[in-house]
Amino acid sequence: MTLPAPLVRFTSVQKTYDGSTLVVRDLNLNIQSGEFLSLLGPSGSGKTTTLMMLAGFESPTSGEIFLAGKPITKTPPHKRNFGMVFQNYALFPHMTIADNVAYPLTVRKLGKSEREDKVKRALDMVHLGDKGEALGRAAAACGPGAGAGV
Question: Which contacts (CB < 8 Å, 24+ apart) does range 129-136 have?
Answer without folding.
Answer: 134/97, 135/96, 135/97, 135/98, 136/96, 136/97, 136/98
